[in-house]
Design goal:
seven-stranded mixed beta sheet; two-stranded antiparallel ribbon; 319 residues; alpha/beta
Length: 319
């Protein structure tokens, strides 16, 4: 029968006392360890022996010795108490935000500029927080948020999303840069304009994509036609691969452009073109569901993201 000893009246204080008796070998010392008097400890041990139906210890000149039944029960009791300690530690970690799973969504720019440094910090300060990061367009991130697959995301409010259902904290604009391969023919020019870039193929999001609308709008405002030859893809990985292997040009978030242009990424085969420095996508925000309370771990990650945002804003103002 399951839980037979519990049904007979087994109690946790009895297990604590038996473990202490095994460690000390004396009833008085065991009683002191669990903060009770010796007579109370003796009565508790007697009750435990009646519960299990077997003698658990024998007295000797130096104190007591556990019987085989006592040793068996004491061993299991120690496992149970240790397991409860581990559960308490886990509960404390979960409620304090030191442990848990946090599901983040982000558009490309802040994924590199904000989330990546937060991941590095969490690995050191709170390694038991497990992060899941989805990088996609705002419409896909919005769908994932309402489906319960994300705790929050950094992006924009897509068309059709009800503003009353969300909480929003604006972070800032997302600058855009044009990128090309490191030894692109344009790299040999002393002066460069956006018009010069239109002689080459461009890699952009499919029609209607925010980044594509931003680039096309920027060209039109500056009296330029959109590129004649466009390869459409929503994949940043494919975009970077094409840029690395051809003379094509692509608009991507500046934070991502600077990251991929560094020596540590793609072997330094990507360069950011020194044009269109004022091209920018509309501001992005930190978006969550209004009526869903964040978990302690999610709140900890949110606070780190907010602090990173303040640091970036302060450095931008300083420069």
């Amino acid at each position: 029968m399951r839980d037979e000893l519990i049904r007979r009246g087994l109690r946790l204080p009895q297990l604590r006392l038996l473990v202490a008796l095994r460690e000390t070998g004396q009833v008085s010392a065991a009683a002191a360890q669990v903060a009770m008097t010796q007579p109370a400890a003796s009565r508790l041990l007697a009750d435990l022996e009646r519960t299990v139906g077997a003698p658990l210890y024998e007295r000797n000149a130096r104190g007591v010795t556990l019987t085989p039944a006592g040793l068996a029960l004491a061993g299991k009791a120690r496992e149970v108490l240790h397991g409860l300690d581990e559960v308490q530690h886990e509960i404390t970690a979960l409620t304090s935000g030191e442990r848990g799973t946090v599901r983040i969504g982000s558009v490309t720019g802040p994924a590199v500029e904000l989330i990546l440094p937060v991941i590095r910090e969490l690995r050191v300060t709170f390694p038991e927080i497990e992060l899941s990061v989805l990088v996609d367009t705002s419409d896909k991130l919005g769908d994932a948020l309402f489906a319960g697959d994300l705790d929050f995301y950094i992006g924009r409010i897509p068309d059709g999303m009800s503003p009353s259902a969300i909480a929003l904290e604006e972070i800032g604009p997302e600058p855009v840069s044009l990128i090309a391969r490191l030894d692109h023919p344009l790299s040999r020019r002393d002066t460069l304009s956006v018009a010069d870039c239109l002689a080459y193929d461009w890699v952009m999001q499919p029609e209607g994509g925010l980044l594509r609308r931003t680039a096309e709008g920027y060209l039109l405002r500056n009296g330029l036609r959109p590129p004649e030859r466009i390869l459409s893809t929503s994949s940043l990985l494919l975009t970077l691969a094409i840029i690395s292997e051809t003379n094509a040009i692509a608009p991507i978030a500046r934070a991502a452009a600077e990251f991929y242009a560094s020596q540590s990424a793609f072997g330094g085969r990507i360069r950011r073109l020194d044009v269109a420095g004022d091209m920018s996508v509309i501001p992005y925000s930190l978006i969550s569901l209004r009526d869903v309370e964040a978990t302690p771990a999610a709140r900890r990650v949110l606070n780190l993201l907010r602090e990173k945002t303040r640091q970036i804003s302060a450095s931008t103002v300083a420069t």
